[in-house]
Amino acid sequence: MENIEWGSLGFGYFKTDYNVRCYYRDGKWGELEVSSSEEVTMHMAATVLHYGQAAFEGMKAFRGQDGRIRMFRPYENAKRMISSAKGVLMAEPPEELFVEACKKVVKLNEKFIPPYGTGASLYLRPVLIGTGAQVGVHPAKEYLFMVFACPVGPYFKEGFKPVKFQVARDYDRAAPFGTGKYKVGGNYAASLASGERAAKEGYSNCIYLDAATHTYIDEAGAANFFGIKNNTYCTPESTSILPSITNMSLCQIAEDLGLKVERRKIAVEELDTFEEVAACGTAAVISPINEIADRVNNKVYKWGAEAGPVCTKLYQTLKGIQEGLIEDKHNWNVFID
Ligand code: PLP
Ligand code: COI
Description:
Layout: E1 19-25, E2 28-29, E3 33-35, H1 47-50, E4 54-56, E5 59-63, E6 69-72, H2 74-87, H3 95-108, E7 121-130, E8 143-152, E9 163-168, H4 185-200, E10 205-209, E11 217-220, E12 224-229, E13 232-236, H5 245-256, E14 260-264, E15 276-281, E16 285-294, E17 299-302, H6 309-322, E18 333-335
Parallel strand pairs: 9-10, 9-16, 13-14
Antiparallel strand pairs: 1-2, 1-3, 1-8, 4-7, 5-6, 5-7, 6-18, 7-8, 10-11, 12-13, 12-15, 15-16, 16-17
Pyridoxal-5'-phosphate binds at residues 58, 219, 222-224, 242, 244-247, 281-282.
């Protein structure tokens, strides 16, 4: 195992030994190739550079208390990448190719999988880009699918401590019939200016509202949003949010724990009525929120300085399943042995 200070890792790029790549040419995917280069060479007219044919995924592998290595729900990430590929007309990496590539990159970088109990994990970043040349606005005929891995710590430096968000009313992330439901690069480009402003003003990130009416909550930065009240897990329903695999899992865990689950529109004004609110995602896991500031309307919503009891139970259950401490009764983990 590498000599790394696992416990002080943040969330960022970290060089590992290998990545894997697969090229789509002449209408078909080639063989998976192993690479130790951090670079990609491509045509200057590649569609990813001009027209944003780019999608990515984010998932994690964990070393369990039993020493076994588990990836969390990679088939769901594979399905979502296929959906993203369809969304911006890219060649779709088949599910089996996607999962095989992820398994391979975990195995090849095994010494970078953080030990159990350090709070860190191995983050996998599958990427799909249009590499074929076009100057007119058309999809490429050639694509590159690759997966790299980095050991990471918590996305927010606070870890499982509450963070502050700011409502972005003067910026939109995604339109109702746009690409918000796909994990494509353009959505992240669209979130940079508001996200950096929020950071400058002392917030972890933005709460994005529905772009049509600016009434309902869409997402919490690069994470989904949920609120808890009256023994109910509530999370937004919208055509412009990314279907989070963490959120989907938490809905199931909440139900298993005896909570009611509601997927419906959540108006900003409803924030006042929630006992707990949080952001959730692969990188964010569950990040409890203790403040949401609506900067345009000059209204501030506040919650406790510590994570609430329901968020804590959801967090412990999710982590417990991912690290092999709690029975994985829905068969979410894929073992790398
Ligand atoms: N929403 C956005 C915009 C994201 O980038 C992510 C991260 O992947 C999520 C939600 C959470 O999704 P998941 O739980 O599948 O990681
Ligand atoms: C993830 O949770 O995997 C994300 O994609 C969030 C962010 C790092 C883009």
